[in-house]
């Protein structure tokens, strides 16, 4: 098991959009947990993205592709997503600009929902979470900052290590885990909530595609004071 602690890659300006996304996701989840259990379940069913409804062109289904990005299944789901967004989002926002980052984030989230729907179009289980969009952000980070260092906690059975890993290693390792887990989940009956691995895969691939030409050359972490050369989910 590996878990990112922080990256060593300073930004030039405050990541306003990244902070706003974290705040909105947190506030929506606080509203979710304030509801009675039956109300909370209905809230997720109405605003989560259900593949079967999207395929059937049910009214407002397209809207849920966006709203589902701000819902989460539990505290651990929320914390893991927001922590990853905090680590990788600021630098990507710094390079793409605030408006560009918003558009990139939403498109990756859409791509995540589409891929998950293509894989399991008859599912009636709502998909929630920002993971697909954040997977796209991680893909952008991989493209733009492959040599940046990520301080990582590595757990092997009962042994715990803290190491600085290159972003390319950490993110590729994460993607391979999603790919293997997604393949392993194919054909497994869904009796309840489960991880939408193909949303992660879809968001990541969309992020790579959108930055296939990049914005400037890939680069590692910048030193303070220096200037750059120019997708439950």
Share of helix among residues?
55-70%
Q: Tell me what portion of residues adopts beta-strand conformation.
A: 5-15%
pLDDT average, as an integer? 88
Helix tally equals 9
Strand arrangement within the widest β-sheet reads 1-2-3
The total strand number stands at 3
Distance between the termini: 19 Å
Model description:
This protein has 233 residues and is mainly α. It has a domain at 12-146 and 195-210: Rhomboid-like fold (Up-down Bundle). The chain is 57% helix and 10% strand. It has nine helices and three strands. The protein has helices spanning 16-34, 37-47, 51-55, 61-67, 75-96, 98-119, 131-144, 167-185, 197-210; strands at 2-8, 149-156, 159-166. Strands 1-2-3 form a three-stranded antiparallel beta sheet. The two termini are 19 Å apart.
Task: Offer a few descriptive terms.
disordered C terminus; 233 residues; Rhomboid-like fold; mainly alpha; 3 strands; three-stranded antiparallel β-sheet; single chain
Tell me briefly what this model is:
With 233 residues, the chain is mainly alpha-helical. Helices cover 57% and strands 10% of the residues. A 3-stranded antiparallel β-sheet has the order 1-2-3.
Secondary-structure map with pairings?
Blueprint (H helix, E strand, L loop, with lengths): L1 E7 L7 H19 L2 H11 L3 H5 L5 H7 L7 H22 L1 H22 L11 H14 L4 E8 L2 E8 H19 L11 H14 L23
